[in-house]
């Protein structure tokens, strides 16, 4: 603090004139990188590093092989100025650098920043680019700055090397824009302990909607040219599709987004289903925030079963009867659909249009005749967990209101394993699923797409 020595009347004037300056404070010089996180740009041997500074600096990543000479390589990128739309119009620079020509499965040590300040030292393992790779994931939605129940367990799992990639299925921070986007900053600092070490792949949720999803669009770096709203990428035997379910709910931001996403999705599924592509990557897994089916009693999307979600979204993506050309996920043989938004865990029997399509009576998940759905939105946030509707429909196979998250390993072309971790029960696995799908069944799917 400093004192202004002046006549009282002048003092008052000076204070008034200075008021905005006093309230806002002069920004410190802030060239120190923070909020470091990785994402996979979708090309073999690539990794993207994203971070924040509050003053403008260059964008450089220096890196080297673990055990080799530190920082003997360097890559440059650039930054974009992100001006939050809150009262303070806070400004920050989001830096993005893509590393290319990485050796598959090699571990790299890196730091990021510029001559005006370097981050801590982090490391990551470049993804194996073979279609025979069996990648391991943690996946969840609805993780907040406050009450992030599963975060510590996820941090420790990640540090133990349990995951190759993390999938965060929408709803971050609660909410990133709050307190003039300081909640976003703090959340990105919280997940750095995970996301600076393994690629952190995202899709938008309803909690990102403020100011047209600008915090989400600016802070993450996903493949494609849609600022992370929808995109696809491949890993091991899997083709992943990430969608914005929110385009159906915030039509003010542009009805054309509904159609752009839909057109893109249909093309993407068609391409993924070309025989030569599906032979290499037989699994198609989608992720999107709001589920098509759910049985929570949250006075929200699931409370009435024929919710807006299943009506509008189902209508456009998933409907069995009304619009036979638009039931894309089913016709294009999507194997697994990952959702969040409900603050619970729910596993569904193979389902399409509210009807259960078990593989067989004894083995419902062996060669299922419709996509399998998992809802995993209980990572932990200030809204706590949700309750269930006491009378779920036939498609509901297992439900839990424990805080937790899901682990998944795509073992090979025919076998996928998934399990649910309860944070409330000290990491106990409370549910698991083997999903074996024979190649022959897939070819039936593919034929169904073109019949
Ligand atoms: C930012 O960097 C990328 C990668 O180096 C480059 O493709 C792009 O043109 C750059 N953008 C600007 C505005 O310099
Ligand atoms: C990638 O994974 C495949 C399948 O497990 C394995 O055969 C291959 O050796 C791995 N690549 C490297 C570079 O380790
Ligand atoms: C919202 O953002 C999307 C994605 O950048 C853009 O296409 C759309 O035009 C924006 N809508 C409005 C109303 O600004
Ligand atoms: C699907 O399989 C489960 C588990 O065996 C069973 O409880 C359920 O009744 C089956 N549903 C149908 C429609 O066959
Ligand atoms: C795929 O993995 C499953 C489960 O580990 C195994 O039983 C099966 O033999 C594997 N298939 C091939 C072709 O390796
Ligand atoms: Fe949500």
Describe the model.
It catalyses: a phosphate monoester + H2O = an alcohol + phosphate. InterPro entries: Calcineurin-like_PHP, Metallo-depent_PP-like, MPP_PAP, PAPs_C, PAPs_N, Purple_acid_Pase-like_N. It comes from Neogobius melanostomus (round goby). One of its GO terms (molecular function) is acid phosphatase activity. Residues 1-25 form the signal peptide. The protein is an alpha+beta fold and 451 residues long. It folds into 2 domains: 34-125, Purple acid phosphatase-like, N-terminal (Immunoglobulin-like, Sandwich); 136-450, Metallo-dependent phosphatases (Purple Acid Phosphatase, chain A, domain 2), CATH 3.60.21. It contains 9 helices and 26 strands. Strands 15-16-17-18-22-19-23 form a 7-stranded mixed beta sheet, with helices on one face. A 6-stranded mixed beta sheet has the order 14-12-10-24-25-26, with no helix packed on it. Strand 24 and strand 25 (415-422) form a beta hairpin. It is globular and about 65 Å long. The N and C termini lie far apart (76 Å). Mean pLDDT is 89; it is low at 1-9 and 317-325. It binds 2-acetamido-2-deoxy-beta-D-glucopyranose (5 copies) and fe (ii) ion. One 2-acetamido-2-deoxy-beta-D-glucopyranose (NAG) binds at residues 411-412, 414-415. One 2-acetamido-2-deoxy-beta-D-glucopyranose (NAG) binds at residues 104-105, 128, 130, 132-133.
């Amino acid at each position: 603090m400093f004192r202004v020595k002046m006549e009282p009347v002048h003092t008052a004037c000076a204070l008034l004139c200075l008021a905005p300056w006093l309230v806002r404070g002069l920004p410190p010089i802030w060239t120190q990188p923070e909020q470091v996180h990785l994402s996979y740009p979708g090309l073999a041997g690539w990794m993207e590093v994203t971070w924040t500074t509050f003053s403008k600096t260059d964008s450089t990543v220096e890196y080297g092989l673990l055990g080799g000479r530190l920082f003997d390589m360097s890559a440059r990128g650039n930054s974009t100025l992100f001006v939050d739309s809150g009262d303070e119009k806070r400004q920050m620079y989001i830096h993005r650098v893509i590393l290319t020509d990485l050796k598959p499965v090699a571990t790299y040590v890196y730091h990021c920043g510029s001559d005006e300040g370097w981050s801590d030292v982090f490391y990551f393992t470049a993804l194996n680019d073979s279609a025979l790779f069996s990648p391991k994931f943690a996946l969840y939605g609805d993780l907040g700055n406050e009450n992030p129940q599963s975060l510590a367990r996820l941090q420790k799992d990640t540090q133990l090397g349990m995951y190759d990639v993390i999938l965060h299925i929408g709803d971050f921070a609660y909410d990133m824009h709050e307190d003039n986007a300081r909640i976003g900053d703090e959340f990105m600092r919280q997940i750095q302990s995970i996301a600076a070490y393994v690629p952190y792949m995202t899709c938008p949720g309803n909690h990102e909607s403020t100011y047209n999803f600008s915090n989400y669009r600016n802070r993450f770096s996903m493949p494609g040219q849609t600022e992370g709203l929808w995109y696809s990428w491949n890993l091991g035997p899997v083709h992943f599709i990430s969608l914005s379910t929110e385009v159906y709910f915030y039509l003010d931001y542009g009805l054309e987004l509904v159609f752009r996403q839909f057109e893109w999705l249909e093309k993407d599924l068609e391409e993924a289903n070309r025989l030569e592509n599906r032979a290499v990557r037989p699994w198609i897994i989608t992720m999107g925030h709001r589920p098509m089916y759910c049985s929570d009693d949250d006075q929200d999307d699931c409370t009435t079963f024929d919710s807006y979600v299943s009506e509008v979204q189902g209508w456009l993506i998933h409907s069995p009867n009304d619009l036979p050309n638009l039931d894309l996920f089913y016709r294009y043989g999507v194997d697994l659909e990952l959702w969040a938004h409900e603050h619970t865990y729910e596993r569904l029997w193979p389902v399409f249009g509210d009807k259960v399509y078990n593989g067989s009576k004894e083995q419902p998940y062996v060669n299922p005749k419709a996509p399998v759905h998992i809802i995993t939105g209980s990572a932990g946030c200030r809204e706590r967990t949700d309750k269930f509707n006491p009378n779920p429909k036939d498609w509901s196979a297992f439900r839990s209101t424990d805080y937790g998250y899901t682990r998944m390993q795509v073992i090979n072309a025919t076998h996928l394993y998934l399990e649910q971790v309860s944070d409330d029960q000290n990491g106990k696995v409370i549910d698991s699923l083997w999903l074996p799908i024979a190649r022959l069944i897939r070819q039936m799917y593919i034929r169904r797409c073109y019949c």
